Amino acid sequence: MISYQIEQNLSPAEFKELLIRSTLGERRPIEDEETLSKMLQHANLIVCARDDKGKLLGIARSLSDFSYCTYLSDLAVDEAYQKQGIGKELIRQTKLASAKAKLILLSAPKAINYYPKIGMTKWEQCYVLNNLEDLK
Question: Which domain holds residue 45?
């Protein structure tokens, strides 16, 4: 049985292990414990999926104002548990926790075809600025 709950005190080590067990570890700074710690510290909505023994199977880590927008920054599910509806339920639980807000995410390349299948709308209007020097 899988349980879903909002968690405030997820450890960076447990977060890192899940990122490694999912494909998201390829795109996150898993060797930088300080960054992982700050990612958890500054997220204000973290929904976790756990098995009946407490093993972390999935996470939806978000930043939200709970009114206008919720940015779902990380959606990660242990590869051994993918294709069981865990990711979709993590998204549902995130939306329930911020019901009025529009849910926004940037897809990892490997997951780009997943989101339309579960009813999310693709938008083309996304921009990224990594380096301040690039701002003109």
Answer: 3-134
Whose structure tokens read 């701002």? 135
Handedness of CA 57, 90, 28, 64 (dihedral sign): negative
Q: Which residues contact 110 (CB under 8 A, 6 or more apart)?
A: 23
Chain centre to alpha carbon of residue 104: 11
Please, are residues 4 and 47 in contact by the beta-carbon 8 Å criterion?
Answer: yes
Per the CB < 8 A criterion, the answer to whether 6 and 55 are in contact is no
> 76 pLDDT exceeds 90?
yes
Give the CATH number, domain containing residue 64.
3.40.630.30
Q: What is the pTM of this model?
A: 0.93
